Amino acid sequence: MLLEIAHGEPAFADFVAALEQAGLPTDDLNAAPFRYFCRDGVAWGGIGRGDDALLRSVVVHPNARGGGQGAAMVEALVTQARTDGTRRLWLLTTDAAPFFARLGWRPMDRAEAPAPIASSQQFSGLCPASATLMMRAL
User: How far apart are CA 4 and CA 80, in angstroms?
Assistant: First the structure.
């Protein structure tokens, strides 16, 4: 089950701890327009809003890795984004491109990023220029 979480909730603190443990950024988590979700208390992730939106900060608790929780979380976020009216989800990754490719995401040239994605903090500074940009049409 996918549950939206907000700052101050225990589930959000678990999310932040899992991101820190995975070496993923946490200092901009309150930046709009992201909403964050928890799945089964062991997987978390966020999505933006709009026709083109970012998927970000997908992480699985270390004790639950390897059991399909990451893929299930990504698919739940895709479903939520589709329900919200998003047409294309984008992400940046430094080391998980093969995982996302197996889930139907395709690598894109950074020059192809639409304005809402290219102007995001993740694209312009948080993720290194070497990060792979990927897209999935919904």
Answer: 10
Total Cβ atoms within 10 A of residue 103: 13
Q: For the chain, 138 residues long, give each residue's pLDDT as a single digit of tens.
A: 789 998 888 999 999 999 999 988 888 888 767 999 999 999 999 999 999 999 999 999 999 999 999 999 999 999 999 999 999 999 999 889 999 999 999 999 999 999 999 988 788 776 767 889 999 999
Q: Are 81 and 55 in contact (CB under 8 A)?
A: yes
Q: How far is the C-alpha of 58 from the C-alpha of 71, rounded, in Å?
A: 10
Q: What's this model's pTM, rounded to 2 decimal places?
A: 0.92
SS (H, E, C) 8-69: CCHHHHHHHHHHHHHCCCCCCCCCCCCEEEEECCCEEEEECCCCEEEEEEEEECHHHCCCCH
Q: In 10 A of CB 91, how many CB atoms?
A: 26
